[in-house]
Amino acid sequence: MDVSIVIIDIGSYLTRVGFGGNSRHSSELLTAASISTVDNSGFISDACVANADRSNFQFINLFNNGVIENLNWFKHFLRYIFEFEILTTITENKVLITLPLISNLKDLKIQMARILFNEFNIGWLSIQSSAKMCLYAYSLSSGIIINCSEKLIQITPIINNQILFEAVQSANFGGFDLDCYLEKLLESRGFEIGPYTQSFARKSLLKKIKEKYCFVNHRKLETYEKTFCSNQMTIYATDINRLNNLLGSIKFEVTEALFASELISNSLINKSIPQLFSNCIKKVDKKYKNILCENIILTGGCTLFEGFEQRLKNELQSLPNISENLRILPANNRNNLTWYGSSVFTQSANEEIWISGQQFRASTAQDLDRKFSF
What we know:
The chain has 374 residues and is α+β, with helices and mostly antiparallel strands. 34% of the residues lie in helices and 20% in strands. Strand 7 (63-64) and strand 8 (67-68) form a beta hairpin. The radius of gyration is 22 Å and the shape is globular.
């Protein structure tokens, strides 16, 4: 019997599902669950409860402050994937899970494995770092991955396929926070988001406005004329194609928060991408700095803004002790990079990355810690 390799790339906002060896994933869904407030049953994504009474469901993102806390919700999430997204039996097949470096990762990996083997009876399992999979997309063993996703910014340096954990920098900040900042800017400038009672619909409209119109200036503008709406305007979903001239400076003010986190955070800690990068490089051995700065990989939805790459390069080159040969690697699929790298990885990795259900149940905690080590 041929053994299929199922890839489940779990991100802070989207999860992509498909099969090893393919160039693209076969489906994607929100990394979220819609939980019934009546009987605690679980569904996946808002679309799954479209025909039900939405007032009876609570929409929950599985990532909370960079942590997957509720494994019961996660079990609902996996069940949906296996029953509706993967149109083949998973018994005896291999499953590759990719995850960002989150704070409860050590315990989470073992708990995930227990669920996958005991609840879903998969054949073999491998759990890998999302950042390391990005390197495989470029056939590299060393580099620094800058992930800017919906709820997480993470800078991960990797040398010879080994993550330098002491230098990894993370901030629970991302596209979701930009959506909130966009809403704040609009309301302060005379705009109002239509009277949507459902939070999901409201956030969805803000996200569409952000992705359609916002861009990054190549440099910080010290002075500019802020855009205001002279007459109070309510923005509805049907208005989205006629906002370009109305939004003005708001289109670049929103993304400025990626480079000046104090715009949307009361924290005294600077969470901007350049500062996180600087903090990371300071903790790396000098002999590795050049190769890391020459192999910078961008991934995640927030890296797709027009002008982002040039602005980031300008900001990083202005930092002290940065290699003159700083290079951001080109990519046409940044929003799909982890999944593509995972597919490449499954075709070249040796059998040692996999653990069977029998091996899992016979292993000690120390054995599992080594087996699931990133």
